[in-house]
Amino acid sequence: MNPLPICATQPQLDDTAHLHAPYIELNESLVSVIAEGDIAAALAQLQAYLLKSERAVLAALQYRRHRPRV
Length: 70
Description:
This protein has helices spanning about 15-20, 20-35, 40-65. By secondary structure, it is mainly α.
């Protein structure tokens, strides 16, 4: 299984849609794998999913912390 790519959009917290949008398809995939009973694949997907989401949130927080003030 390939690792999930990190969100390539510029992270921001003012508009959080980009933080949620990538997970719609991932949620559907995870539900499908669980419904099929493939627990090993579900675990692998969930681990990649959580890593991706953690990185996206941390990047958004880092960006907000260091963005230029206008």
